[in-house]
Amino acid sequence: MKVESIELIEIIDSRTKPTIQTLINSSSGKAPSGASTGTHEAKCFVPKHLEDLEEKIKTKIEGRNFTQEKFDKELQELDGTDDFSRLGAIGIASSLAFKNANGFKHTENFPYPLSNVIGGGEHGGNTSIQEFLVIPVNAKSFPEAVKTNTKIYQELKDRYKSKIRGINDEGALITSMDDEKTLKALKKVADKHDARIGLDMAASEFYKDGKYRYAKMNQTLSPNEQLDFVEKLIEEFDLLYVEDPFDQEDFEMHARLTKKQPDVLINGDDLFTTNSERLEKGIAKKSCNSLIIKPNQIGTVTQTKETVSLAQRNDYTPVISHRSGETCDSTISDLALEWNIPIIKAGIADIRIAKLNKLIKLWNQMENPKMNPEI
Predict the structure, then answer these.
(1) Distance (Å, rounded) from C-alpha 246 to C-alpha 253?
(2) Domain holding 62: CATH number?
(3) pLDDT tier at 196 (50, 70, 90 boundaries)?
(4) Rounded CA gap, 30 and 23, in Å?
(5) Is the domain of 177 the same as that of 302?
């Protein structure tokens, strides 16, 4: 594809923080950002002297033909670091813009929405566990799946309204209950709507000096005790999905849990950060059987696709995901279809509905859409 024009614009994300929108041939890409970020993520910031950088990029790119791979390679060379320390958010915004301009090759396999209905941790809330999630595994269509998750969200608001204290960064409900009481409340509602539940523990955020510290429940656990605690939660609440149950450097404990719970999606986010080298280490150690896919964690669409392909070749379930600092960009919805990703983690309220509404639109446009059989 020939790049006729490229423009960089400073915009704001859902937390009113500055970020970048890139326009390539009038097609847009916007960079999200995270609050609970892994230490191995690509940098995502608005660099100084944006106009000067735009002129430099225009000189290098405008008027030339690229594939996605060559375009992303050019971005990496313009940046000159391994983690976009110079271009920051320009990298992923421009890579997404190029992908949107160049188009998608959609499959007809739609992902199941994994929705954050109650939140805490670094995203704001009362619990140490960061996200309490639902997934409508028996839904027969994507619109039905979204409707199920919205019903769960609304019923939680109504049934526990005396314990709801508002919403957090991701549009998730904040509860006054502790972690286990919150899980019990969610289980009642999810069961009623024939949905399974999951957790994003984001355990690195409350791991300190070799211990996991659950402030609200007033308990401090060693790694072995954390393993026992997570297994107890899996069994008691029939969890389908557990994300980041241990510290982001602890491949061994993730491997132990995966071996003991082979039927549960043990997912690495901070552990892998969409990085193929870290995923290769996880595969070798048999750490997790699933991973989060966030394009801005690694920096370009091409690098993201490499990690997805590596995961799929090794029977790891990819889960493409939003960030806590979001925009109305819906590119991950298109990527979920193109890359045959079976789960999309995209919230259920606030600005994140852009991802869900895009998939509802695409479902209604296709002749033979179906829910992804890989789940």
Answers:
(1) 7
(2) 3.30.390.10
(3) very high
(4) 9
(5) yes
Displacement of CA 216 from its chain's centroid (Å): 26
The confidence score (pLDDT) of residue 36 equals 63
Q: For residues 167 and 25, what is the distance between their CA atoms, to the nearest angstrom? A: 37
**Alpha carbons 272 and 288: distance in angstroms, whole number:** 10
Burial class (CB in 10 A: 0-12, 13-18, 19+), 42: buried
Q: Is residue 1 one of the residues assigned to a domain?
A: no
Q: Which of 41, 74, 122, 170 is catalytic?
A: 170
pLDDT at 232 > cutoff 90 = yes
Q: Give dist(CA 356, CA 347) in Å, integer.
A: 9
- How many other β-carbons are positioned within 10 Å of the β-carbon of residue 308? 24
Give the residue among 236, 155, 240, 159 at the shortest CA–CA distance from 197: 240
Q: What pTM was estimated for this model as a whole?
A: 0.96
| Residue in 212, 279, 200, 283 with CA at minimum distance from that of residue 244 | 200
SS (H, E, C) 64-104: CECCHHHHHHHHHHHHCCCCCCCCCHHHHHHHHHHHHHHCC
Query: Residue 216 has what pLDDT?
Result: 82
pLDDT tens-place string over residues 284-317: 999 999 999 999 999 999 999 999 999 999 999 9
On the question of pLDDT at 170 being above 90, the answer is: no
Among the candidates 51, 75, 102, a domain finishes at 102
In this structure, is residue 202 part of a structural domain? Answer: yes
Annotated active-site residue in 43, 216, 294, 345? 294
What tens digit of pLDDT does each residue of 139-169 get?
999 999 999 999 999 999 999 999 999 898 8
What is residue 325's DSSP assignment? B
Specify whether 170 is catalytic. yes
